[in-house]
Design brief:
Elements lengths: L2 E5 L20 E5 L10 H8 L9 H14 L4 E2 L3 H7 L8 H27 L6 H26 L10 H4 L4 E4 L1 H18 L12 H16 L16 H21 L7 H4 L12 E7 L10 H5 L16 E2 L1 H4 L8 H5 E2 L3 E4 L5 E4 L15 H6 L7 E2 L20 E7 H16 L6 E2 L2 H13 L8 E2 L14 E9 L2 E8 L13 H9 L5 H11 L1 H9 L7 E3 L15 E3 L4 H10 L16 H6 L9 H4 L2 E6 L2 H5 L6
Parallel strand pairs: 4-18
Antiparallel strand pairs: 1-2, 3-6, 5-11, 7-10, 8-9, 12-13, 14-15, 16-17
Length: 646
């Protein structure tokens, strides 16, 4: 393939998918495409050029780890305490974490730089294409540029805004960070252009459409309209009044209604949406998606290898044995919620591996007659770190699908926005207009209908009322309350020991508010961090309570008093590895002869440090700071007036 040469700002980061150059070459990056700049002349050529924006090399560093470590790990969807990945789950978020660098690189030196080059080429090229065709290609690139900038500001706050790749930048490597208001304004302009010039029905079903742009614009306005709280740490805080918020929410309602009534998208079951058979094409719900091709490392998706508990589920590699859906989320699913089986492996369920072998996830395999199994339940659950469940969503090997053995380069569709999200956004906007108090219960029929439409079509129990956020503090185990813990007191003998809690505990409660409904619907789809940020923008105190009430320092292991593998029959065969640190301290005092130690299996989650460090915005990676100007520019007016120079 020919090199598609262009100028881009890499911010001093090593972009493995894009270049292997020294520091002096950071502005001259090769991105691979099927066409050189000289050969791109026709509308068809240009559409092949924009294909690179949809997945593969440009997104690989974002998708390989950053997306799920941040979007699922930080907000407590995915239990994972492994090295740099686990640091984000444990809320130890440092600017030297290489995973942050990978995501930052992918967004800026990958997606944004490529989109800018396509836009500038289309605006300057001589061709027989019509203006409408040129604008359609530009609109496609602007939609991706907008989405990447939207992610950048939601992750990093006052982040760089890069709209050009011309000489004025290449002669001045350092660029500014700008206000969120300026970033939002640039994103809005790009998306409005995309709404105007993208087709209602693209020639390729997987390409973005007018409705993709409308859905993203709705997500932008939903975010901006949520900014009611005076947030710390920003040089130029972005807040709106209640009346301005209502105005944004009205636009969300209009845009989502247009998508719902005009796009032709329809509800589908989770079993179909996340099936192996449909992984390369849009589902009935797809509004906007990325598509990773099967190929060499850095082209396809690495997600399956990262999440599959063993190679039997992911030919080539499976490193997800110690990763599972966090207990407080897992426990919020009712047993008759059809989404649970699509989200995760859990005990007493049957699944088919990549080679077609029937496997039983649980202990009672012998009673299953002549059905084939690769392992007994205890062996299966004890492989790697022991967690109560493992991730299943997007693990294609589950359905007996034959894949290549390049587990780090599997083909995958990743929905950015699907129809269920559009319904949920409309419900959230209507709820926000009705209740400024995020803890108030909503029984409005319009809101409930949108939520229940999603739930009923996905085999989940419907609701008759809902809070945006349910503060469970009054129902928690309180300081001084006695907590009973079963311990070994002698050979073959157990006893219940009552220990007084020295901090609030929430593991015995089930959250069932709007935040949790979104978490259950979109778990492992890259939504949870953005959802939690909107709660933070609306009410930072309640957002911190959400983090505190998650009880994320929890892992399931075989109970210390249980040595018989047959007792793995259900969740009852597991004990929390750590209730809270203080319980371990008391147990160590009571039964030192049984090996209890306050430090054993300790999982440290420093919520206070997360809040004091304002980690609601991730730190810009250390290696990027050299290439950023000091301070933050407002830049809003220059963006509005089309005079922004970078």
């Amino acid at each position: 393939m020919k090199n598609f040469k262009y100028k881009s700002l890499v911010w001093g980061l090593s972009a493995l998918a894009f270049c292997s150059t020294s520091c002096k070459d950071f502005l001259d990056v090769d991105v691979y495409d099927q066409y050189s700049t000289e050969s791109v002349k026709t509308f068809a050529d240009c559409q092949l050029m924009t294909r690179a924006l949809y997945g593969g090399r440009l997104w690989t560093q974002y998708e390989s780890k950053f997306s799920w470590c941040v979007n699922e790990g930080v907000p407590g969807i995915l239990y994972n305490v492994h090295q740099e990945e686990g640091a984000l789950f444990l809320l130890s978020i440092g600017e030297d974490n290489p995973i942050l660098k990978e995501g930052y690189t992918s967004l800026y030196s990958g997606v944004i730089s490529t989109a800018n080059q396509i836009i500038e080429k289309m605006e300057s090229m001589e061709s027989s294409m019509s203006d409408n065709e040129k604008n359609q290609v530009i609109a496609e690139a602007k939609l991706f540029r907008a989405y990447a900038h939207f992610l950048a500001t939601e992750y990093f706050g006052e982040a760089p805004l890069v709209l050009h790749t011309g000489k004025d930048i290449s002669e001045n490597v350092t660029v500014p960070r700008v206000s969120r208001k300026a970033l939002y304004a640039a994103i809005e302009k790009d998306l409005k252009f995309a709404v105007e010039y993208l087709p209602k029905k693209p020639s390729d079903s997987w390409r973005v459409s007018e409705y993709s742009a409308k859905a993203l614009l709705a997500k932008l306005y939903l975010t901006m309209g949520s900014c009611l709280s005076d947030l710390p740490g920003a040089q130029y805080p972005f807040t709106v009044s209640e009346s301005e918020s209502d105005g944004y929410m009205d636009q969300v309602i209009d845009l989502t209604t247009s998508v719902i009534t005009e796009s032709g998208a329809d509800f589908d079951t989770h079993a179909n949406i996340f099936s192996a058979a449909g992984r390369q094409n849009p589902s009935k719900e797809t509004i906007f998606a990325l598509y990773f091709p099967m190929g060499e490392y850095g082209e396809g998706s690495a997600y399956q290898s990262q999440m599959a508990p063993e190679e039997i589920w992911s030919p080539g590699s499976g490193w997800g044995s110690g990763k599972g859906i966090s207990y407080t989320l897992y426990n919020s699913f009712s047993n008759d919620d059809a989404r649970k089986k699509e989200l995760c492996f859990f005990v007493d369920q049957e699944y088919t591996t990549a080679d077609g072998t029937l496997c039983y996830y649980g202990p009672d395999y012998a009673s299953k007659g002549e059905k084939a199994h690769t392992k007994s339940g205890s062996e299966f659950l004890n492989s790697g770190q022991c967690v109560l469940n493992n991730v299943k969503k997007f693990i294609w090997g589950v359905n007996g699908t034959a894949l290549n053995d390049k587990g780090m380069a599997v083909d995958r569709r990743l929905d950015i926005i699907r129809l269920s999200d559009v319904y949920m956004m409309r419900a959230e906007a209507n709820m926000a207009k009705l209740n400024k108090d995020v803890t108030a219960k909503c029984t409005d029929g319009v809101v409930l209908k949108d939520i229940n439409d999603v739930l009923s079509h996905h085999g989940a129990p419907t609701i008759d009322g809902i809070k945006y956020f349910d503060d469970m503090e009054s129902r928690a185990i309180k300081v001084g309350d006695e907590v009973t813990f079963s311990v070994t007191v002698g050979e073959g003998t157990t006893a219940d020991v009552a220990v007084k809690a020295t901090q609030p505990m929430y593991h015995n409660l089930v959250r069932d508010d709007f935040m949790q409904q979104r978490r259950k619907e979109f778990a492992m789809e890259g939504q949870a961090w953005l959802d939690l940020k909107r709660l933070f923008y609306r009410d930072k105190e309640m957002a911190m309570k959400f983090m505190e009430q998650m009880d994320r320092a929890i892992q399931f292991s075989q109970s210390p008093e249980v040595e018989d593998a047959a007792m793995f029959e259900s969740e009852a065969g597991f004990a929390r590895r750590q209730l809270v640190h203080d319980l371990n301290v008391e147990l160590a005092k009571l039964y030192p002869e049984n090996g209890y130690n306050a430090g054993n299996d300790e999982v440290a989650v420093d919520i206070a440090a997360f809040e004091s460090n304002n980690a609601w915005f991730l730190p810009i990676p250390t290696s990027a700071k050299t290439y950023l100007q000091a301070g933050v520019l407002d830049a809003y007016q220059s963006v509005v007036d089309d005079k922004y120079q970078y």
